[in-house]
Specification:
Rossmann fold; Dihydrodipicolinate Reductase, domain 2; 15 strands; 34% helix; globular; binds NADPH dihydro-nicotinamide-adenine-dinucleotide phosphate; binds the ligand O=C1O[C@H](COP(=O)(O)O)[C@@H](O)[C@H](O)[C@H]1O; glucose metabolism; NADP binding; oxidoreductase; G6P_DH_AS; EC 1.1.1.49
Length: 523
């Protein structure tokens, strides 16, 4: 129970109890209509909160995905009034002024420290007062930590100690949402998990990896297990190699100070790309129950041996075409060797995948922004047609972004009188196939899942452990400066050594593939 020492403050807080003046019925929420939901955004004054958390909440609110009895309370150390918070958030929110105002009316702010008790007591008083007004209703409290992980233990201790007093109404719950990075290596991640685990059981912890909230990542599960044609192909007999690629066409843009202590392997590969790998390679789960799915992800991740140094290429971007190099960023320490590019090949030691290279590639300041999965099949044996048989390979590409698409490169007869071959494609372009359909961003989906209590797209502790186990030895070598970091110009495809690694993985690039936008002249 909260202890509030100052009665005057308590009555003020009670008077200012917020709620959304939403008239929209929450018909498709999938949770109790009566739920009194309070979302606490800890770290509300920060970047993540204003860039991602609040806009995602506004999206859910605007589209009727939040229950009617909902309030959003920001909490952070910065002294700010409710109105100042609203002014700060306003430019980040979308929609008409009326809609934005409606959302912001339900957003209030409490300031307090993360390590003391006073702020948490104030917050607890607000929560309890609000829930008392809705006596008899089940209450949900979503504690969203938009904060650096270094303060998670303090914040969770404060929340647990002072803000754990839920009314005893059936269906009431408390959930804690945390953001990566979850540690710097296996040991520090385990220590953090241990500390949080003492305060909140796994069932209450929602670890966000926002790639799991992307449309095409969730689609992977369906493509793999709802289609008959994928099942017989999805193994070492048919698949030659797999590439999972993340590319950004911009550098650290002033975030270099943060990035420099992590590097691209911790920033993108250990989490997002390994999660994609698990979704791509796991066995079919018993059911779509979150734990059945996560059990399978853990199993496949545990079959992956730690990354070997000879299977790694690292890079760091340098200035080119008036674009600054990584170390030109004033927030980056001079002479830093932190990789902004990495390509790593891993192998899955199980019956399905033994010997198939999975190349995980991530880089900043490259030639394009793109995230995709490329499954390259083996060449057809005894190729009786003209052309280079090695290069005539089927490829299934799942493009996560930009512009979601799935295409299968297919060998066809080149139209005409001769029997000649060409590579064409079966092409599912989401913009064309689903015109006008808005594909929601990852954050609204994941926040909605956490409100619904669905942990399917959140990282379980044993998954996290398995992912760190794959990357930790190589990270220690990188940290020790024991691996070469190749320079690559800003805006290029990365260091050429990465293409050599890809070639060693058996990838064959077919230079004859000639893609035309729909409607343009074809072969
Ligand atoms: N629905 C749609 O929108 C469709 C679009 N297309 C488009 O057609 C174009 C060609 O498609 P696709 O063949 O799949 O993709 P790309 O030609 O872009 O790339 C194919 C693969 O080859 C690699 N690669 C590229 N250049 C080299 C190189 N010089 N040496 C070694 N490897 C290289 C790429 O790596 P890396 O990514 O690291 O450069 C990637 O793994 C793309 O722009 C694609 O978006 C095709 C079909 C459908
Ligand atoms: O987690 C991170 O992801 C972003 C890329 O996310 P996306 O949804 O825009 O693809 C990346 O820029 C950032 O460095 C990393 O920390």
């Amino acid at each position: 129970m909260a202890v509030l020492t100052d009665d005057r403050k308590a009555s003020q807080l009670l008077e200012s109890e917020p709620s959304f003046p939403s008239t929209r019925d929450c018909w498709h929420c999938g949770f109790e209509r009566d739920l009194c939901l309070t979302i606490v955004v800890a770290g509300a004054s920060g970047d993540l909160a204003s860039k991602k958390t609040y806009p995602a909440l506004q999206f859910l609110h605007h589209n009727g995905f939040l229950p009617r009895k909902v309030a959003i309370i920001g909490y952070a150390r910065t002294q700010m009034s409710d109105e100042q918070l609203r002014t700060k958030l306003r430019p980040r929110l979308k929609g008409s002024e009326k809609e934005v105002d409606k959302f912001l009316e339900g957003c209030t702010y409490v300031s307090g420290s993360y390590d003391g008790s006073e702020g948490w007591q104030k917050l607890a008083a607000v929560l309890e007062a609000r829930e008392a007004k809705h006596r008899g209703c089940p209450c949900g409290r979503l504690y969203y930590l938009a904060l650096p992980p270094s303060v998670y233990p303090q914040v969770c201790t404060g929340l647990k100690t002072y803000c754990d007093g839920l009314p005893s109404v059936e269906g009431s719950w408390i959930r804690v949402v945390v953001e990566k990075p979850f540690g710097l290596d296996l040991q520090s991640s385990e220590e953090l998990a241990e500390e949080l685990g003492k305060l909140y059981p796994e069932s209450q912890l929602y670890r966000i990896d926002h790639y799991l909230g992307k449309e095409m990542v969730q689609n992977l599960f369906v493509i793999r297990f709802a289609n008959m044609f994928t099942a017989p192909l999805w193994n070492r007999n048919c698949i030659s190699n797999v590439q999972i690629t993340f590319k950004e066409d911009f550098g650290t843009q002033g975030r270099g100070g943060y990035f420099d202590s992590f590097g691209i392997v911790r920033d993108v590969i250990q989490n997002h790309l390994i999660q994609l790998l698990a979704m791509l390679a796991m066995e079919k789960p018993l059911s779509i129950h979150p734990d059945d799915l996560r059990d399978e992800k853990v199993k496949v991740l545990r079959c992956i041996k730690p990354v070997q140094p000879h299977n790694v290429v690292l890079g760091q971007y340098t200035a080119a075409d008036a674009q600054p190099g990584y170390t030109d960023d004033p927030t980056v320490p001079a002479g830093s060797k932190t990789p902004t590019f990495a390509s790593v090949t891993v192998f899955i030691d199980n019956d399905r995948w033994a010997g198939v290279p999975f190349v995980l590639k991530a880089g900043k300041a490259l030639n394009e922004r793109k995230a995709e999965i490329r499954v390259q099949l083996r060449s057809t044996p005894h190729f009786v047609f003209n052309g280079e048989p090695e290069a005539m390979r089927n490829e299934l590409v799942v493009r996560l972004q930009p512009d979601e698409a799935i295409y299968l490169k297919l060998i066809v007869k080149k139209p005409g009188l001769e029997i000649d071959t060409a590579i064409s494609e079966l092409d599912l372009d989401y913009r064309q196939r689903y015109p006008g359909v808005v594909i929601p961003d990852a954050y609204p989906r994941l926040i909605l899942d956490s409100i619904r209590g669905d942990q399917q797209h959140f990282v379980r502790r044993d998954e996290l452990r398995a992912a760190w186990a794959i990357c930790t030895p190589i990270l220690h070598l990188i940290d020790a400066g024991a691996l070469p970091v190749h320079p690559y110009p800003y805006g290029s495809r990365g260091p050429p050594e990465a293409d050599e690694l890809l070639a060693r993985a058996g990838f064959v690039k077919n230079s004859r593939y000639d893609w035309h936008e729909a409607g343009a002249a074809r072969l």
